[in-house]
Amino acid sequence: MKKIFMICLAASFLLAGCHSDSSDNSTDTPISDSTIEESSTPYEDLSSSTQTSSLSSSNHSSTSPTEQQTADTVSSSEFGGYATFYFNGMNVPDSININTNTDQITFNVDTSNEAIYTLSMQNIPAKTIRFFSAHTNEIRTVIVSTKLSIGDQLSGTFNSNNQSGDLYLFHNKQGGLSLATPNYAGNVSENETDVMLEVLQ
């Protein structure tokens, strides 16, 4: 009887030791949809569907949200002031060209539907947006701080959708630049009307 008691007692101590080791490796704050963690890459994916499985304790930081306000700023010198992003899909532009040297943005470059507008690029306080991934079409979340605002139309075909909202530049996981645009197709449910499109170079 003493042997059984001693075995149970030893097993309890071992299990208690394993439990405390695993809790020591966990973070102090739980991961939730409203928690924003700083990642080791410039692109910060905060998607609730992949957050618990893809984030490890090595990616967690004790940085406060105010320290993350400039987490992902894009400078026009990174792309030489000139970059073209190409869409995939229906009811969307073919492409968007950003030219910060002339402060112009061109929709549907070199097509019969080409339209040119004035452009302003500015750094803003960090803002969380949701977008449809260019690769998988899943909804992802990112913190952005570089906003592109479309101004007056200078020439080309009139399309009010082109001026339907601000655009955002951010660094993607592959190290390149992504452009977040309004969902010009508009084919989403009511709870996804804020979800933008990710467009790649």
Automatic annotation (TrEMBL):
Keywords: Signal
Region (Disordered): 21-75
Residues spanning the signal sequence: 1-16
Bias type Low complexity, positions: 47-66
Coiled coil: none
Annotated Polar residues bias: 23-42
Protein name: Lipoprotein
Lineage: Bacteria, Bacillati, Bacillota, Bacilli, Lactobacillales
